[in-house]
Amino acid sequence: MEQPAEKPAKRSGPVKGGSVTGVAINRPRPMKEVETTDELRFATGMGELDRVLGTHSEGGAHVKYAEGVLEYKITGLQVTIRNAPLAPSDPRNAQRFEADAMVTLEVPVRFAGKVFPSLRMRLKVQAGYMEVF
Questions:
Q1: Can you tell me the distance from the alpha carbon of 46 to that of 80, in angstroms, rounded to the nearest whole number?
Q2: Among residues 111, 45, 104, 115, which one has the least CA distance to residue 73?
């Protein structure tokens, strides 16, 4: 005998300035209203790392296991992007588009069947692009 489908849980409504799911929405603004210090957040940063590195979210960290043993853990992704001006006054000294990304990497240390304190380091990666034409 078929059972009736469960009714979806009711939502309490959208969060002020957000969507029905409670996620803040970045609405388009005129350029004159955008400050150079504005902070933008995208939920896809760690998701993209999961896809590339084969990790998954677990307890606030993104982890990778090999044969059931923790291989490494990544936390604390921070990305800073510096955009280049559209029309620099002096092309010879033009800034370039740059992105800095920082993560904390924790790797368990095992040797001769013993477990030692994990190796923990803060990693920084920088990428840049400057058009040459």
A1: 14
A2: 104
Q: Which of 29, 109, 39, 10 is nearest to 69 (CA)?
A: 109
Instruction: Give the DSSP H/E element, type plus range, for residue 104.
Output: strand 97-111
Q: Tell me whether residue 33 is in a domain.
A: no
Closest CA to 104 of 44, 47, 48, 60: 60
Q: How many structural domains compose the chain?
A: 1
Q: Domain for residue 13, yes or no?
A: no
* pLDDT confidence tier of residue 46, bands split at 50, 70 and 90: confident
Any domain includes 111: yes
Domain span at residue 64 reads 38-129
- pTM, rounded to two decimals: 0.57
The answer to whether residue 53 is domain-embedded is: yes
Report the distance separating Cα 101 and Cα 80, nearest Å: 6
